[in-house]
């Protein structure tokens, strides 16, 4: 049987790319969401299965309902690499984006009817993906953590790195979180350590905990307690006044990917490497109660969570299914939709 007609000669492979008409639209693998108090949402996405490995950001007004992001939707901002995190800079017309290329970029929108986004500043000083960002001083200082193991403090007025914690961890730093009412912050890494840092000191203040597996995410519950999730699916709480082992709160069936604490409360939302969104409340004696659980709204992994500051019972989630979902959390009754 003659197969010559079905085999593409090696020297003609490039023709496939020259005649490619699929475009460079970023697929709707949504990675994170940030919600501004004025109702503007920032949703970051990356192309995970295509040729281009680019990324993008959608910035739009929150409609207060579920929304499907399609491949044909035009991004507010198009990036040449994926994006794992980003945030608003004070106002909703300025954003700070982390890129998989190791770059950090500041974008602003015009005040006219077109709302065009323009890259104001960009610099690449991380040697690998920038995985997490948090605000140290609103509008001025921000902290990034990367897969290169480095942590950096930035003056974003000029986008200058003003402090570089080189080799802060020996493996990828998945998460960084600023301690409330303080200039200290905590980082969590795949090297199993959670470390406490002060922006004025080059060395860590202390290693708060040495876990038995990699740290995936952490958030401060208040000035002294933080909650963290790991690769084993365990959610734990730790009081930094007593460094050491954390107290196990609950174990999930998959690695804990993201934690979102509702400001001013003991309520937190959790998503893992699955389709379920869980909301829990931590009591004063560090016990945990599940008050909401939903595994039906998403058809793919949930990746991002954000509370609506305008309504204490509203939570938004995004995932790799391209869906933005609204959750109405009722504290009085646990809703099981799994």
From TrEMBL:
Entry protein name: Methylosome protein 50-like
Organism of derivation: Papilio xuthus (Asian swallowtail butterfly)
Signal peptide: none
Keyword Cytoplasm: yes
Localization, UniProt: Cytoplasm
GO-annotated biological processes: oocyte axis specification
Pfam family, one: WD40
WD repeats: 123-156, 166-198
Originating gene: LOC106128268
Keyword hit for Calcium: no
SMART domains: WD40
Assigned GO CC terms: methylosome
